[in-house]
Amino acid sequence: MTDNYSPTTIRTGCPAHNCGGRCLLIAHIQDGKITRLDTDDRPDSIASPQLRACPRGRAYLRRQYHPDRLLHPLKRTGKRGEGQFERISWDEALETVAAQFERVKAKYGNEALFVPYGTGSYNQLNGSHTARRLLNLYGGCIGIYNSYSWAAINAATPTVWGTLVTGNQRQDWLNSRYILMWGWNPAEMRDGTNSDYFIKLARQNGARIVCIDPRHSLSAAALADEWIPIRPGTDAAMMTAMAYVMLTEGLLDTAFIRRYCLGWDAATMPPGHESDESYTDYLLGARDGQAKTPEWAEAITAVPAETIARIAREYATSQPAVLYQGYGMQRRAYGEQVVRAGCVLSAITGNFGISGGWASGLGLQAPDGGGLWTVFPTGQNPVKAAIPVFLWTEACLRGKSMTQADGVTGVPNLTSDIKLIYAVATNCLINQHANVNRSAEILRDESKVEFLVVQDNFLTPTAKFADIVLPACTQFETWGVEDGWKYSDEVILQPKLVEPPGECKSDYQICADIAERLGIGEVYTEGRDEKAWVDYCLGVWRSTRFPELPTLDEFIDQNLGAWSNPVTQPAIAFEDFRRDPERFPLKTPSGKIEIFSKQLYDFGNPDEVPAIPKYIQEWESPFPPTRRGGSRSAPTTPAVYPLQALGHHTLHRVHSTHDNNDWLGEAFPQRIFINPLDAAEHGICDGDLVRVWNERGELVIPARVTPRILPGVVDIPQGAWWAPNESGVDFGGCVNVLTSERWTPFAFGTAQHTIMVQVEKLKG
Q: What is the DSSP track for 637-648?
């Protein structure tokens, strides 16, 4: 046992890989090895529920002691992507990395350095935070904003509400009468530890739960009273038709809406825009001649008109009600629109600022958003330029030509392409980014990215493209600490449990070693090791959010593992605004809920970024192409690729982490889910190997024929490791072989769920 930490059973945090939860594990340790993992055994209550781990956390031993763990630094010997390496010493690896930092900085400037987004290790002392601190102290690197998870919802929510803090604390869900789980699947992707538990309690308390989703997810099966399958990418059309029903059937309080909202009708348009299209104009078809009726929406969504009308009436008359938006539907071509449409439904029905309600959008919890998130000090980035996280491939190809029109912030334009990438705990360069074949082609070209160093536990598809590979510890092999993620009412200690295998080092120590060679070692560490930084982070939380948070010594001496701040009186978002909108205005430009956004109007792209939320047909869809959608790529015709594809979050993995975990692979095998009607049309039986392809790539995967997915839609769970053969056909089941690198028009975010494909039974 290390650091004089003597119990044979130790409470610790589940390694943080951005599953959306933060859970407690109990590690059983014998002879310096973890032999078993249990989960939370502390007292349980609604105010402070146990943090119970899912199968991914419980199966972590198979990852911890996997025979393929990286044990030594490696140097590439073959071409990038071939996965050919030789073992080298730490001194050679660190000297090489430091020398490349110095060379690229001297030749191109700090803007050519890049730390990509990644959450393969995601607590305060592990992962890319450590590298960002290093680069910021070294003069900076090109910055990033947004994420692969939340790009459109992060950008769109404030255009309506002026903030991302639009959610009540979750204990308040028990006061709701009606909950729409719209594209939301907390039973698999988590979205806060215990979110599914609170939905279950709300249902037991009398709330009706309706799940709207193209697939009959585990959440639909376990939590919902009703499942409504919907065609992917059309959710905004159903929301629009619901608003039409509410308007035309007199289910809304117009005076109430006019008091709180901007842009609902002609009487509430902002100054200078009185003659522009209001939301009521759009619903009634006053400008385009198309009333947004349930029948109009049925042809788009595949949801029966009578169902749309019924759900509209139920949601409008069952106050208080929750419309909780999942994130998959905003990772689509026009993801901003569905977010804004959902926010508007909650606004016009008055389901904001009240107990049991929910303002929709991102839904960070009141009163403060749920925590500071990164309290490990990464420092200020001296480089002012930043790009949307999803556009890193563009910055490799044409960084010097990228301007604010490409999402660049902080400067008018970039001065360099990305030339050096330091990838820490991320598989986003290859596996998790869109259009894998395109990303691989970019990284193979050493005249573009001149040096790539990858720091990880395994030789992932991304690591196979590295020039230098650095073996990192898992979170069980170093000290760390984490908060409760999106709903942050907990702090969880992650003590060092066992020694790392081989020559593995922690992310922090590796960065400290590089910093030493760059002449900034003392500045980087401030004399602290990982354990001392944990103590520092606890102090920050104690002084800013949780005065009663135990000290590090108390955590250790009492084997606490986790500390929870009980929620006995759930906070309500916008409670003051609801009570007195003049005295407590929103942080929007008008101080009101902005159904019409002047910010979006001034964006100057009304076809793709309208001032009011609209349904816009996606650039790849099962419908005939339209003139909409800009000119960045030609639309895919449904005659060539007739099936929409999804890539949902599976219990097999956290993104791509755990793909090599055989226990989870056996429980949740990688397959393409296809409806029996589509399977019969293509001569596919359950268990058959099938080809799935479009113009971007091809994969081979077993079929699971099931009625639990809408006809016309197939589902390939995201995160499987890319494993191409010599012809480039993927046999790993990586959905990103098929996805497009095209981005959303306002947030510059991923649209990876907008995919059309063809399938056939594999011959021979």
A: PTTTS-EEEE--
